[in-house]
Amino acid sequence: MAEPGCLRGIAVSDGVKGTVEDNPIDETVLDGLRRLQSNLRPDFASRIIRLYLDTTPSVLNELRAAALAGDMRVLRTANHRLISASAALGAARLAALCHDMDVTMRAGSLPDAAQRVEAIAEEYKQVEAALRAWCADQRP
To answer: Could you give the domains of the chain?
Structure first.
């Protein structure tokens, strides 16, 4: 059952219903993580989210540095870490941006690497805010 102020896990504000496209996080994924919690690990989902929020800024810095240096190996490695972690937390748009960059890199070149990395960083800001809000809503 959706919590008050939510529509199928999507935040509602000022009486305006959100859509999946409006939300940077698929909260059904987070609800799945929450269901994995137990009495022994009541904060399982929030710990996973905290780990993601703590490590992603350094991954973004790696992406930025690699894009500026034209280092495709480092760019690909950091990008793969971000794809996997983002998808695991329901950040589908962010994972899609990373996936698109990966597909382009596999084609041989990435002339717009810095712009793509900045688009990823901008989407991450939305993801971060949504994850922090979700965690705050989970507190008793």
So the answer is: 6-138 (1.20.120.160)
Identify the pLDDT of residue 123: 98
Residue 79, pLDDT > 60, answer yes
**Which region, left, alpha or beta, applies to residue 8 given φ > 0 means left and ψ of -120 to 50 means alpha?**
left
Query: What pTM was estimated for this model as a whole?
Result: 0.80
Q: From its phi and psi, is residue 30 left (phi > 0), alpha (psi between -120 and 50) or beta?
A: alpha
φ, ψ for residue 83, nearest 5 deg: -55, -55
- CA angle, residues 93, 125, 83, in degrees to nearest 5: 40
